[in-house]
Each structure stands twice: as structure tokens, then as C-alpha cells.
Specification:
Layout (H helix, E strand, L loop, with lengths): L4 E2 L3 H11 L5 H19 L5 E7 L4 E7 L4 E7 L3 H10 L4 E2 L1 E6 L6 E7 L8 E5 L2 E2 L3 H12 L4 E5 L2 E2 L1 H10 L4 E4 L1 E2 L2 E2 L5 E2 L5 H6 L3
Parallel strand pairs: 1-12, 4-5, 4-6, 4-8, 8-10, 9-11, 10-12, 11-13
Antiparallel strand pairs: 2-3, 6-7, 14-15
The protein binds 1-O-pyrophosphono-5-O-phosphono-alpha-D-ribofuranose and uracil.
Uracil binds next to α6.
């Protein structure tokens, strides 16, 4: 698997274009984030191990496959990661959800942790961190470090748009983490927003600006 894995599927790219458009309002923006997350999750769970079980169909006894081994936990980084949670949970409703609250200090741009609530059995689960934007990479690097401190062995990271700066920081800090994104954009601006990006994901999801 390539790392990072850029998802260039036409459905994802089409929805991403609508998401970037500044004329897309909060309702449609939330729906698009959810749909893109679901499509990305389909690909990010492609390597889940399967085991054979025996079931009875109305016609016969049959050998069939179910997901086995380590179970999943989704870890949205608050706030914007919440926008992705609904979509991924539609595909894997049995997954548990852990929340990590981080915001970027507008002056220092450093992530500040304000909340962390993880499933008690998190160390036994595969974790998929979800956050629409990978800008400087500070939030992703810290969230993944926190999961590792809590004993998580297998971690994936899924974002919608990444900047080259954030991608570099994340792959250097956590080379073992498989990254999925829908677009690798051009650059960060002088306030560390992604260009062309989509603006402030949290504000657009929750209509706070
Ligand atoms: C955004 C985004 C990421 C972070 C990315 O959150 O959702 O978590 O910025 O930036 P970084 O890669 O430079 O750390 P923000 O801090 O704006 O908080 P919010 O989700 O509460 O709006
Ligand atoms: N966070 C966002 O929401 N957007 C960016 O472009 C960068 C960080």
C-alpha cells in the first residue's frame, strides 16, 4: 500500500470539488463531509482480516466470511473530525469512538489538548484517526502520540485535504501510520491555512463563522 494513499476515485473527487466551493452552505457541507468519509472508509478498511464461519441460509449450510481479529475504533479530532464520524459509523456501526479535543492556538499554531476520552479497551483495537484537515500536522502528530501512549499498536489516519508540510511532519513523526487522504494541496498560507483547501473546516461544518 502506498503511503500516503491518495484516493482519486471520481466520486470522492467530485464531492470534494463541491466541498471546496465557498458557495456550499453548512447543510450541504456536512452531508458532503459525511459522504466522502464513508467512501474513504470503504477503502481504508480494505485490509481488515476475515474469518470463516458456518451459517445456515434458507437453502443450505454455508461457509461465509465475517470480520475477525482486532476490532475498530474511530478517533475524531474535535471539532471538525466529528463531521466525519457519522459517515464512517454508517459503514462500521459496531466500532467504538474515542474523542480527542485539540485546537490550534491562533498565535503559536501549536495544538492545545482540552479533551480526551478513549474506549477502555482501546489498546486492543485498531484506531482510525479522522480529521478533515492536515495543515501543519501538529494536531495529527499529537493525537497519534496520545493513542500510542495509551497502548494502541495499529493506527491509521484519514483526512480529506492535506498540505505537503503536514504530510511531511506526520510521516516523519509516525512512519508506521498509514495515511489516507482525498487531496494533497499546494501549500499553507501565512496563517497556516491550506491553499486552495476549503477554509476552516470546523466553522463550515458547524456554521460558526
Ligand atoms: C483544524 C483541523 C485540524 C487542525 C489542523 O482544527 O480540524 O484538527 O486544524 O491543523 P494542524 O495540522 O496545523 O494542526 P482547529 O484547530 O481549527 O479546531 P476546530 O476543529 O475546533 O475548529
Ligand atoms: N484547519 C482548517 O480547518 N483549515 C485549514 O486550512 C487549516 C487548518
Amino acid at each position: 500500500m502506498q503511503n500516503p494513499f491518495i484516493m482519486d476515485h471520481p466520486l470522492i473527487q467530485h464531492k470534494l470539488t463541491l466541498l471546496r466551493d465557498k458557495n456550499t452552505g453548512s447543510k450541504e457541507f456536512r452531508e458532503l463531509v459525511s459522504e466522502i468519509s464513508m467512501l474513504m472508509c470503504y477503502e481504508a478498511t480494505r485490509d481488515l482480516p476475515l474469518q470463516e464461519v458456518e451459517i445456515e441460509t434458507p437453502m443450505a449450510v454455508a461457509k461465509a466470511k465475517v470480520i475477525s481479529g482486532r476490532k475498530l475504533a474511530f478517533i475524531p479530532i474535535l471539532r471538525a473530525g466529528l463531521g466525519m464520524a457519522e459517515g464512517v459509523l454508517q459503514l462500521v456501526p459496531a466500532a467504538k469512538v474515542g474523542h480527542i479535543g485539540l485546537y490550534r492556538d491562533p498565535e503559536t499554531l501549536q495544538p492545545v489538548e482540552y479533551y480526551c476520552k478513549l474506549p477502555t479497551d482501546i489498546a486492543k483495537r485498531e484506531a482510525i484517526v479522522i480529521d478533515p484537515m492536515l495543515a501543519t500536522g501538529g494536531s495529527a502528530v499529537d493525537a497519534i502520540s496520545l493513542l500510542k501512549k495509551n497502548g494502541v499498536k495499529t493506527i491509521k489516519y484519514m483526512c480529506i485535504i492535506a498540505a505537503p508540510e503536514g504530510m511531511k511532519a506526520l510521516t516523519e513523526a509516525h512512519p508506521d501510520v498509514q495515511i489516507y487522504c482525498a487531496a494533497l494541496d499546494e501549500k499553507l498560507n501565512d496563517r497556516s491555512y491550506i491553499v486552495p483547501g476549503l477554509g476552516d473546516a470546523g466553522d463550515r461544518i458547524f456554521g460558526t463563522k
